[in-house]
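Hey, can you fold this one?
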Amino acid sequence: MRATLLYGTRDVRVDEVPDPAIQRPGDAVVRIIASCVCGSDLWPYRGVRPVREPRRIGHELVGVVEEVGSDVRTAAPGDVVIAPFVLSDGTCPNCRNGMFTSCLHGAGWGSDDEDGCFVDGGQGEYARVAMADGTLVRTPEAPDDALVPSLLALSDVMGTGHHAAVSAGVGPGSTVAVVGDGAVGLCAVLAARRLGAERIIAMSRHEDRAALARRFGADEIVAERGDEGAQVIRDRTNGIGADAVLECVGTKESMQQAIDSTRPGGRVGYVGVPAGGPELPIGQLFSNNITVGGGVAPVRAYLPELLADVLADRLDPGPVFDA
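Sure. Predicted structure:
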């Protein structure tokens, strides 16, 4: 089959690789019908993180189950499934606590599982999915093609934006600022609106993304960055800052901007994959009673509730994909 490999900085190729097969009783083989590029793929692609040897890439997908191992109970051939960006067994203590990304037996796409068996990357024609019962989420029926982008968004960016909003304590009446206008930031706007935020300020200087942020529920757009951007947020919030700020970039500058935009006693929810050395200014957080929470999003925990909203036409994150 064909699959995508990252060879080095700005060097991505499609190669012929071995077809996947069932290797363990809990495996499934999935034919991939939609995959995407994640922001975390861009750091090695741009050379921010070294690539020491060619490796399979892609870690979010929607697909059709082709074959299952003898222990698989929650999926069957022909089912349409969503696979989040980390594989998990769904039964270990961390999974039971909702932290599927910290599964004691978890695995990553494009690498070996704990038994030493290779798990394919998500950018290919097929993939072996280890721990299928704990990883895959089945749709009740085969979706229309038009719904696939929204299902794909649930594999990562929608759940990640939701995690930022949950970590920041967004709820009815909240004033929310979103730092970052990529797919995760835009989904964070959707998540904040879904959780009842009264006012959402999206920080964007791209006209097309700002327009999508407004479509998703943003009330205002701030184009300024850094100290100036944080000052604009404070100026628009009675001089104090937002109740909740969602940091969806992962750089030192974006984290500082998020903290500077948060009111005393407010919360920052961060989900941007760290790059460029972001650090927490403990003195500033201490002096202003600002809480910082978040991290890698346990998307598998959020998938059922978000899928229900997509299928009920209450949530449509698909427009974040433009190609």
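The chain is about 30% helix and 25% strand. Let me know if you want another pass with a different chain boundary.
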